[in-house]
Amino acid sequence: MNQPLYVVDGVPIDNTNFGQAGVWGGADQGDGMSSINPDDIASMTVLKGAGAAALYGSRAANGVILITTKKGTVRNGLGIEVNSNYVFETVQNLTDFQLTHGNGGYDGATPQTSVAITPKSIETHWNNWWGLQSWGPKFDGSPTVQFDGVTRPYSYAGDNWKRFYEIGHTLTNSIALSGGSEAQNFRLSAAQLDNTGVAPNTKFSRSNISLATNSKFGKKLSVNSKVMYSNEKTKGRPNVSDSPGNEFLALMYLPGDVNVLNLLGDPNKPGAVPSLEQQQQQGIKVFDGKQPGEEFQVSNNLWTQNPYWAAHQQRNEDVRDRVIATGNARYDITSFLYISGQAGMDWFTKRGTLLTPQGTGHNRGGSMSEYEYRTREINFQYMLGFNKTYNGKFGVNAFFGGNRMRRTNEYISANGSGFNTPFFAAITNARDKNYDYNYGKQGINSIFGSVEFSYNNYLFLTGTARKDWFSVLNPEDNSIVYPSIGASFVFTEALKAFPGWLSYGKLRAGWAQVGNVNSVSPYQTTLLYGAGSTHVGQPLGGFSSGSNFPNPNLKPFTSTEFEFGMEARFFNDRLGFDVTYYDQKTTDDILNANISRASGFTTTTVNLGKLTNKGIEVLLTGKPIQGGVNWDVSLNFSKNNSKVISLIEGQTEVIGEEPRTRTVFIKSIVGQPFGVITGQTQLRDPASGLLVYDANGTPVGDGSYKIIGNGVPDFTGGLNNSFTWKQLNLSFLIDFKSGGDIYSGTNVRMTQAGFTKQTLLGREGEAPLTVTGVIADGAGYKPFTKTLAPGEAQNYWGQLGNRAAEKFIYDASFIKLRQVTLAYNLPKRIFSKTPIQNVMLSLVARNLFILYKNVDNIDPESSYTSSNSQGLDYFGMPATRTYGFNLRATF
Amino acid sequence: MKYLKNIIFCSAMAASLLTSCNKSDLKDLNINPQALNTIDLNFLFTAAQLGAASGGSAGDNRYIDWRTNIGMASTAIQQLGTTGGISNTGDKYQDNFETSSAPFEFIYGDQLKDIGEILKQSGPGGFAEGKNPNLRQAARILRAFLFQRLTDYYGSVPYFETMKAGEGIFFPKYDKQKLIYADLLKELEEATAAFGAPDPADGFASADLYYKGDITKWKKWGYSLMLRAAMRISNVDAATANTYVAKALAGGVFTANSDNVLVPMAEAPSLWTNQNGISRAFIPGDGGEPSFLSRTLVDFLKGPNTGSITDDDPRLMILTGGIGVWTPTSWTPTISDPTKQKGLPNGKDQTMLEVIEGVTPLDLNATYSKINPLLLDRSEPYMLMNYGEVEILLAEAAQRSIGGLTPAVAKAHYDDGVKASMQMYTIYDASFAVADTKVTTYLTTYPYNVTKPALEMIGDQYWVNHFLNWWEAWSNWRRTGFPVLVPTNYPGNVTDGKIPQRLKYPNAEVGGNPNFSGASANDYVTKLWWAGGPE
Questions:
Q1: Which of A127, A142, A329, B402 is most buried per CB count within 10 Å?
Q2: Separation of first and last alpha carbons in chain B
Q3: Rounded distance, CA B513 to CA B172, Å?
Q4: Interface mutation target, options B10, B22, B180, chain A, most CBs of A under 10 Å
Q5: SS3 label, residue B170
């Protein structure tokens, strides 16, 4: 939701996310920015805050990433630039699980008398649903019967991550040709990227071609055009969050005595039940009656999959073809007056296949979908501009213009379930077929203007205004006007009376407003109906908005920002700082709010009261050593305090996301920072404040949701050091985050199933688990202390996540060595006799080490979705490290 | 200068092209070419009717029955038994969010939403105001049926303020069960009385999945629901129960199995919409939930003389297909001898069963009876209410002299109820026909009010009559305490060894509805108002 707008050479481009994992799992289906060839980018500028909105419109409310691509160069002959990059990637196992107890469970009539056992028969393994439980006794090497009926020693089987994950490789090559004259020049580039991921059977490749031309006709007319084409193929997008198709979760759930290689099954069809012959040879027994070729599962839990099946048999692949084309013309009517026009198109199709193969545990018949998205966005813009300086001192730069945006989305899919010819996964072979179709069109019409006065290049005053009309809102009230004013003053230029050590000083202040409708999609303002399916021949009616209640009264939201900044450099720019303070107020923010099911709907789109964000951003730069060795250091630091001032009328809370454990919610609560994490905590005796337990020593939940954390950090920053010596450059970047919390659903589940180290507490032969607090006694409470028997301890760990969410909230602070780069510019004399002009070699390593963290088993940055649910973890993608090698040559 | 004028003119033209026609142009863009502004209310009604059977219209017919009807009720009231799966929740009194939340999420979010729209749009100011009068009354009856289910699982639930998102009520208040029942009875009375003559042109006959537009049958169902609701509150509000049982009798309740409310199901076009959700939950390779009968049920059906079939309930070999192996492709019974049928004891795991049976390892498939797969075809009709229940309720009313009935007629109603219950299974398979003589034999083997006290026999029959409809069997057990069930006490259970009395509310309500403070107890053990618990 809070995505910035990407603008490539003046034209907004689509960065729609095609779907995220949610509570119920799913895969990140990618977004729009992956299409751009990074070697085509000349510069990237981040325009923060609302000030950018006058030119780029309401969608710029969250800032703009302004990308300028490389243009043709005026030169003699042909310029050639070659770039080669190779990166390899390894998975980072951050788990620190107990490795002393394996598959099994507790056996006995009561928790007091239960003892941990490991299955001695396949029946015990399967009928007790123990396949994903690590509650067995201590490893002793005795025989245990595993999921496949094979008896193996009950001892630690080794690191399954190393067995399952692979080394990822990415090779990128690009070449660019450029040349031409002042009047006509061009740049043509091509790039190819090929990647295989760390998860088995994952691939990504991208091909890019782009052509940019610049022409000048006479002195007054210039015409520029650019066409970029990209083709992206993705195979094996991994599922995260909930269990279906989530190989990472499946791997995590394997008890320590199970070797993942034993789940390979049929060598010709990884993850499938082997042939009867192979079963006989290896003594494999398939307890759940699955046939050869179907999923080889480790437990009756149909949803937790064989990781090889998820990786090799499930398919989630797509091909995206995309054309981004822009053209603009500018005519200088006089030396100070110009008009310009621009047209831009971003058009792509994404053609994909989803397959849950026949034989999958939770969908034994199998299902598949062949789908295509089509999106087209066209922007027309014109501008009339005036730019003149009077007396060499007083300047006026003004323009006004209009923009017309139209965007069409279409989705069509052929879906099927069951296959006529067994195991033949083709949509034409599906037994039951249906199709899906979706269509949406929207537009924004805008007019805008801007005036800037400057005096002597040290005093600037700017005023802008823009009006947008949005098609997605009720036509009665679908427009908004938003102005901005700003001033900046370079005082070191204006007043020469400063001491020599102050080399540069600038003050700036601004006030800006922007209106936006960001998350509103077409047709969301009226309750509409459809009848898309039938039952026994009768149409089934329903609501076209599904479980969302359309809100006819939606209006654009306004964000008003005041910003003050100062920039100064000292001692000939050896030391500098840039400080910004902002105070932003958002009124009527648009949000999909969860509402009670008893209203008939699950969500509604509402204008949400008022939020404030106040913060400070600091950049310190320094050049401690200059001369033979140059040392450049920069430290950035930012801190933001948000606060919910008001919500929907009459409400003090609005609930948002929840993870698959369904034990916590992200909430907006009046008076609190935006997006706090709330959960059911363990009940406390109001009199003594002591924790309440039941007679089994299990926590008693308090039955209401309390704030247990906040996903938003106190501050974040980065420290970059760069050392240059002759042609050699070494730099490293350390990222840090302080404060902010993360609720780990991964740790909840891994505790319930006996994997985390804390679950050793209370097991036989381990340190005892003693709880101290109070227990209910009539209407009040009395003191209670109990040392739990192993069976009771298992029960304790099983219930802990459900009754005491606060036990799984962690401080998400970290310090990470994010990047280390070593670059070497080959001395020019080596190739002075060749056409080569420049060669640079570099080594880049990313995400090398987590130097500091406070959360067990997961990356403190772990998440399963990039939506507004900061602070929730549930079996997201495992962290990786990358090491790269780059060669750049220009001719 | 002429040049300049042209340019200014052109840019002015461009400006006007871009901005002048904002309103109509943008307005047209916001018309969804794929959706309707109004809809034939019959279509919404069909969807609600389908939804009442496992939420098919919500596009996931496997969810609600699997989670709650099977997951909680079937094992809690000891008709099924298991060592694992979702039904372990009811078998071993465990906590499961989804089992608890499913009815709240589906009944409000699917069926009641459709019905709410029908009542709104056919009511004052609606786009179909005054049209489809009979459909409207039928929708009111279905609404009462659904709301009774909801309050029977949770106690206090949102009622009067529901389905009012259009009025800005996103977080409805909770209403007490007593008030909900009073209004449900009023609704049933008004709706049954308000039916008019059938109108062949109104489309109701083809839209109505249950009765093909037969108004007489709708009225019978309305009065039968009135009887069910009145009897449900009879222990705590005898006066109201008395009044409405009398009204139901006067109006006319079910008189034959042909009155049973059946939702027809189909294999196609969609697995997730059109098939029977109960069947899907059990079918191996689909839901694959364990399908063992409970020892309590099998022992009841076999009678005290376990070695002989003479005292068997004729339903024994209807409800079970025997002991055997059920795969996605076939059902292979290995033991079909009725005397050898054996139920799986509730509240046990594999190891406990091995101790009980004295066999290690124990093959469950070779040991315990399974549900008859002939009851679980994908296109099996889904039964919402049957005639047998009505007669059994009348027997109870008579035995307790409610609604003007007297104990003298109790036996006749009881016998009719048992007979209807035994003979209703032919809709699943023709081989399930039970001859009248077999019914008579059963009734003479277990004479009314002789084998056990009358009310206990009535409770037992209500229970066995609701195989597959475990929702209702659970509710009646909670009110009457019959059949007498021995609770289990599996390690780690969350009810202190008591059979659950209610479902917990969804966490989204606990954490998200500011009016949640009006809800009743959020646990598994507090009795509902009609079961003698707090209002």
A1: A127
A2: 89
A3: 8
A4: B22
A5: coil
- Residue A415 CA: distances (Å) to CA of A235, A433, A435, A472, B268: 19, 6, 6, 30, 14
Do the chains contact at B351 and A523, CB–CB below 8 Å? no
Q: How far apart are CA B369 and CA B319, in angstroms?
A: 10
Of A437, A533, A549, the CB nearest to B165: A549
State how far the Cα of A545 lies from the Cα of B36, in Å rounded to an integer: 11
Facing B268 at nearest CB: one of A289, A432, A439? A432
SS3 content of chain A, % helix, strand, coil (to 5): 10, 55, 35
Asked if A432 lies within 8 A of B271 by C-beta distance, the reply is yes
**For A267-289, what is each residue's pLDDT tens digit?**
999 999 999 999 999 999 999 88
**Number of Cβ atoms within 10 Å of the Cβ of B411:** 17
Interface A-B: count of C-beta contacts within 8 A:
306
Q: What is d(CA B282, CA B291) in angstroms, rounded to the nearest whole number?
A: 6
A376-428 per-position pLDDT tens digit: 999 999 999 999 999 989 999 999 999 999 999 999 999 999 999 999 999 99
Closest among B172, B114, B175 to B146, alpha carbons compared: B114
Strand locations in A92-121, DSSP E? 105-107, 115-117
Amino acid at B458: I
Number of H helices, E strands in chain B: 24, 9
For residue B14, count other CB atoms closer than 10 A to its CB. 19
Q: How far is CA B294 from CA A770, B280, B312, B375, in A?
A: 38, 20, 16, 17
* Residues facing A379 on adjacent strands: A344, A405
CA–CA separation, A257 vs A139, rounded Å? 8
| B453's tokens | 């006290």
What does pTM read for this prediction?
Answer: 0.89
The CA distance from A678 to A686, in Å, is 20
Single-letter code of the amino acid located at B201: A
Q: Is A404 on the interface with B (CB under 8 A)?
A: yes
End-to-end Cα separation, chain A, in angstroms: 43
- From the list B14, B42, B273, which residue is nearest A533 (CB)? B273
Contacts of B164 in chain A (CB under 8 A): 599
DSSP state of B476: H
Cβ of B493 under 8 Å from any chain A Cβ? no
Distance, CA of B253 to CA of A506 (rounded, Å)? 88
Q: Is the ipTM of this complex over 0.85?
A: yes
